[in-house]
TrEMBL record:
Places the protein is found: Cell membrane
UniProt protein name: Formate dehydrogenase subunit gamma
UniProt-annotated stretches for the region Disordered: 328-352
Transmembrane feature ranges: 90-112, 132-157, 184-201, 237-256, 268-292
Taxonomic lineage of the native organism: Bacteria, Pseudomonadati, Pseudomonadota, Gammaproteobacteria, Oceanospirillales
NCBIfam families per UniProt: formate-DH-gamm
Cellular component per GO, a single term: plasma membrane
Domain Cytochrome b561 bacterial/Ni-hydrogenase: 129-307
Extent of Acidic residues compositional bias: 343-352
Length: 352
């Protein structure tokens, strides 16, 4: 008898399961057929113009808080829109004017005045100006600066240039690569920049003859020669620009790169504005620095590539420094065959 009871129970189990499934589906379908307007009216109170004005004003109330514990953020953060307007209406145009204007000025200067050539023939005797360590740090920092400048410009202006040309897929890949490169190379640049600034600080303290250098435009105003030590007035100005604005860019970049030290959203927005304005300004000035150090002045690039400069170049650009180290000049032939100069120490190269 128990055998037949068990068999009757077995065929009822699937039926009970089917009935349970049908009932569950029906129970879920009933709310779906409810009136959407009625559901919305029950879920949230009516939102009128006065409510949104309260939200935008920054009032903090139980209906405006977000889900985070002890949060003071309101539903609408008006400062975000202010940041966007400041970035789009002021920062972006400033960058185009600064960098574009510098390129135009340099092009006109080159076409009208041309390259600054040496005042006389080369003597063939060389002076050690930049030791290997300083040159290595300089070129590393310069390379990182160029990469960061290009990736930063792409993040700011790329969507207006590359997106129409190549489409969303290519532009998206460029933006992603730019963002990753910028975020990871930025801290390395900041550390090496500080090392470089500390390394050449002793040559960049302002002196009285620097003021005369600026008055005469580095020798372009009047016919008299302008005095300069190891670093002239323009080089010192570039150094202190990097030591002030450059460090602001570095610090603001660290704030943006590591948003896990308690800084709020408003702090990040201001850091972004300072970072962009400082970086765009430095990029514009760097264009001039690159021009003067390459095609703008004969013999300047040699000093940072080989470490040595010709006596004629030293007398033309840094006559006070030349007077101090002229007895250390060595024939170019000795350098070409790999013979070390009589005094290849860093103190001899940077004495001023």
């Amino acid at each position: 008898m128990s055998y037949f009871i068990d068999r009757r129970l077995l065929w009822r189990l699937p039926l009970l399961t089917l009935l349970f499934a049908v009932g569950l589906a029906f129970s879920q379908a009933v709310p779906a057929q409810a009136d959407p307007d009625r559901e919305a009216s029950l879920a949230v109170p009516a939102l009128d113009a006065d409510t949104w004005r309260q939200v935008r004003s920054g009032e903090i109330g139980p209906n405006f808080r977000d889900s985070r514990a002890d949060s003071t953020y309101n539903l609408v953060n008006a400062s975000g829109e202010n940041w966007r307007q400041l970035r789009n209406r002021w920062v972006s145009p400033f960058g185009l004017i600064a960098i574009g204007g510098m390129i135009v000025v340099i092009a006109l200067f080159y076409l009208i005045i041309g390259r600054k050539d040496l005042s006389g023939p080369r003597t063939g005797r060389k002076l050690l100006r930049w030791p290997l360590l300083v040159r290595s740090i300089h070129w590393t920092v310069a390379t990182l600066f160029i990469v960061l400048a290009l990736t930063g410009l792409n993040l700011l202006y790329g969507k207006f240039v590359f997106r129409p040309l190549f489409g969303d897929a290519v532009w998206g890949a460029m933006i992603s690569a730019s963002k990753v490169s910028h975020n990871y190379l930025g801290p390395l640049f900041g550390i090496l920049l500080i090392v470089l600034l500390a390394r050449v600080l002793k040559h960049n303290w302002p002196k009285k003859h620097d003021l005369e250098w600026f008055k005469k435009g580095g020798g372009m105003v009047g016919k008299a020669h302008v005095d300069a030590g190891f670093a002239n007035g323009g080089e010192k100005a570039w150094f202190w620009l990097l030591a002030t604005v450059g460090l602001v860019v570095v610090v603001s970049g660290f704030v943006l790169d590591f948003p896990n030290y308690g800084q709020g959203r408003d702090t990040m927005q201001w850091a972004n504005i300072l970072h962009a304005v400082g970086a765009l300004g430095l990029t514009a000035v760097a264009v001039g620095h690159i021009y003067i150090g390459t095609i703008g002045s004969e013999g300047s690039l040699e000093g940072m590539t080989t470490g040595y400069v010709d006596e004629t170049w030293a007398k033309d650009h840094h006559n006070l420094w030349y007077e101090e180290v002229k007895d250390q000049a060595v024939p170019e032939q000795e350098l070409s065959v790999g013979r070390p100069p009589p005094d290849d120490s860093e103190e001899a190269a940077t004495r001023s």
